[in-house]
Design brief:
With 331 residues, the chain is an alpha/beta fold. It is built from 9 helices and 8 strands.
Length: 331
């Protein structure tokens, strides 16, 4: 039975931090991979998991930058991974599999917004290719290593409101390019991926979640935005100063990482999965025409769309999860 897409009684909320959420949880002996785990909320996610005792592998496109950020941290390793390059994804996964490690947590954290139309070497629109297909391929290649009880956490966004998956023109080959529609499409894909992955992984005890972390001007994610767009999005006040107001979705980095950590470790989610979360809780399902800032829209939680996206993604990424319903890693 699918988990109800509705809030539960959580002791944490919008202002909670990653350290508060993980306090008292011992992850010794657990192995985690965090894509983009050396900057923004990824860095705070890495910090929280490592301080709780997990061995954290930071998957980074630029290992030099990763070493500058987390080099020397206890329990932290660094691996080269470029999510827009299929060969890089395969190489990263193969290096992990060759060590015969069990994987307990995969945090699909890395992502970006592209303000100009760019394509990867296959001709795929870059936001969809990186934010969704890269993580789809990575998770599939690592699938044999997942231990029973593992969780896959994929960072989506309230930005999914800006665009559902356009199955007739995913790569903007006919429609005019719109950066926010493309970003919204990739974030809707993240949520649908988490939903269907949970159905596939459930028999093996592997559960999957997606989430909105919150808005953070200091994350580096908004570095390419104009000041006018930052003000319009609420990142900056009228005087150009960063806004920190978690009740209204403007968070610090550690607050932004809290929901990723909650999805990865909370006992409240034992036996649950496939849901979209926000503010350290399962988000409310809201109507398509909702004017609310938060909540998850129907096109990001529909099983029929999730299944359709899965079939398309297997073809585009050249990855099949067929026959991988059970992890080959033992406890």
């Amino acid at each position: 039975m699918d988990t109800l897409q509705a809030p539960m009684d959580s002791p944490f909320g919008a202002a909670s931090t990653a350290r508060e959420v993980i306090k008292g949880i011992d992850l010794s002996g657990r192995v985690a991979i965090v894509t983009g785990g050396h900057s923004g909320i990824g860095l705070e996610t890495t910090r929280a998991l490592a301080e709780a005792g997990a061995t954290v592998i930071v998957a980074a496109r630029d290992p030099g930058k990763a070493r500058a950020a987390v080099g020397g941290w206890s329990n932290v390793e660094i691996g080269m991974l470029d999510l827009i390059d299929p060969a890089s994804i395969d190489a990263f996964a193969e290096r992990f599999l060759q060590k015969h490690r069990k994987l307990h947590l995969l945090i699909n954290n890395a992502g970006f917004i592209g303000y100009a139309l760019e394509r990867d070497a296959r001709g795929y629109e870059s936001q969809f290719a990186t934010n969704h297909l890269g993580h789809f391929q990575l998770t599939g290649r690592l699938w044999p290593a997942f231990a029973s009880g593992a969780r896959v956490v994929t960072v989506s966004s309230m930005g999914h409101q800006a665009g559902q998956v356009d199955f007739d023109d995913i790569h903007f080959e006919r429609r005019p390019y719109d950066a926010y529609a493309a970003y919204g499409q990739s974030k809707s894909a993240n949520a649908l991926f988490a939903l269907w992955l949970d159905r596939l992984g459930r028999p093996a005890g592997i559960r999957s979640f997606s989430l909105h972390p919150g808005g953070m001007i200091t994350s580096g994610f908004s570095k390419d935005m104009s000041e006018a767009d930052k003000k319009a999005s609420g990142f900056l006040d009228a005087e150009g100063k960063p806004v920190i107001d978690p009740a209204n979705n403007m968070k610090t980095l550690e607050q932004g990482a809290a929901t990723s950590i909650w999805c990865a470790t909370s006992g409240l989610l034992d036996g649950k999965g496939g849901v979209y979360c926000e503010n350290c809780n399962i988000a409310r399902a809201v109507p398509e025409d909702s004017q609310e800032q938060l909540g998850v829209r129907p096109w990001a939680m529909a099983p029929e769309l999730a299944e359709r996206l899965w079939q398309v993604s297997e073809k585009l990424a050249g990855v099949s999860y067929s026959g991988r319903g059970r992890s080959t890693a033992s406890e």
